[in-house]
Amino acid sequence: MLVVASENGKVGIGAAIEILRAGGSALDAVEAATREVERNEHDHSVGVGGYPNILGEVELDASIMEGATRQAGAVAAIRGFPHPISVARAILDKLPHHVLLAGEGAAQFAAEHGFEPMTLLTPEAEAAWRRVTQRPGFAGASLTVQARMAQDPEKTVGTVDFLALDDHGHIASAVSTSGWAFKYPGRVGDSPIIGAGNYCDDRYGACACTGLGELSIRASLARMTVAALARGLSVSEACHETMADLALLPLPATIPPAMSMVAIDRHGNHGGFTLAEGLKYVWQDGTMAEAATEERTQILLG
Ligand code: ASP
After folding, report:
1. How far is the CA of 192 from the centre of ligand 1 (A)?
2. Segment 69-91, tens digit of pLDDT
3. pLDDT bracket for residue 53 (50, 70, 90)
4. Does ligand 1 lie within 6 Å of residue 6's CB atom?
5. Atom from ligand 1 closest to the CA of residue 156
6. Is the CB of 198 under 6 A from ligand 1?
7. Does ligand 1 have an atom closer than 6 angstroms to the CB of 173?
8. Residue 212 alpha carbon to ligand 1 centre in Å
9. Catalytic site includes residue 242
10. Do 34 and 10 touch, CB atoms closer than 8 A?
11. H-run or E-run covering 58
12. What's 194's DSSP letter?
């Protein structure tokens, strides 16, 4: 058994391992682990306490995928529910054929299935948003201009990724995020897009992303990485190949090429990769008392 996560997944990895040790499924493990991060108010990139959009509303994206069947559930820009990963799981379990629900429809589905609504904007996150809105020239500007003005240095990034391999040889993956801080209302990143920020397949492995989601959407990053594993590449070779493809995407000069991935193959080989410097990931297998924190391999785009 194995669980691999982005570094902020450290608070949840124990919950996943506990489920796997008890003989539970990879799918249950990644959901439970993600919920621990979603409830962590100090993480401003996921769930409760996540930074809001430019209007001060917290909009969450999440997806969960089962490698045995390649069934998936996802929610995009859902407001008012603290555990989007469990809403995504309920879509996978209960709604025939559907994969992704967005906005109002996602909230309606969550309410219908008994999920408890709550206020997601914490005082700390609200204060960060207010600081942005008080910048000179902000008031009165169009939302497009405001969303541009709200970019660095206040912008925070982050997403939680979990990949798990259980003792039955099944793989699952989960991704949850509040997206880019102070984003345009309704902006949906890669996290709920199956194939972009999240993909798994029992036959080959799994991959999940954090970073500028528009890049992984445009490059189908998670799917392409699993497809590279299917061609027999190692985890490292697969991630190098798909990250290299990002170099061909034209980007506004103001946006740093932010992208990171975690990936596993079906044998339990794993790795963390990033275009940035100094980022880490965490992993734990059934023999370990606690998670290990590992440097991600930095990939430099030529
Ligand atoms: N990938 C997320 C998104 O684009 C954000 C992040 O990981 O920083 O919404």
Report:
1. 10
2. 999 999 999 999 999 999 999 99
3. very high
4. no
5. 8
6. no
7. no
8. 5
9. no
10. no
11. none
12. B
Choose between 74 and 156: higher pLDDT.
74
Ligand 1 neighbourhood includes 189 CB (under 6 angstroms): yes
Question: Which are the contacts of 16, defined by CB distance < 8 A and separation ≥ 6?
Answer: 3, 29, 30, 32, 33, 162, 164
What would the CATH number be for the domain defined by 2-298? 3.60.20.30
pLDDT at 245: 92
pLDDT tens per residue, range 20-33: 999 999 999 999 99
Active-site hit among 34, 122, 159, 242: 159
Pick from 190, 215, 246, 281 the residue to mutate for probing ligand 1's pocket: most ligand atoms within 8 Å of its CB: 190
Cβ atoms 53, 90 nearer than 8 A: no
Amino acid, res. 60? L
Residue range 129-140, pLDDT digits in tens? 999 889 888 888
Pairing type for strands 71-78 and 297-298 reads: unpaired
- Per-residue confidence (pLDDT) for residue 301, from 0 to 100: 83
Asked if residues 199 and 226 have their Cβ atoms less than 8 Å apart, the reply is yes
Ligand 1 contact, 192 CB (< 6 A): no
What pLDDT does residue 147 have?
83
In this structure, is the dihedral angle defined by the CA atoms of residues 83, 170, 221 and 254, taken in order, positive or negative?
A: positive
- Preceding omega of 96 cis (within 30 degrees of 0): no
**What pTM does this model have?**
0.96
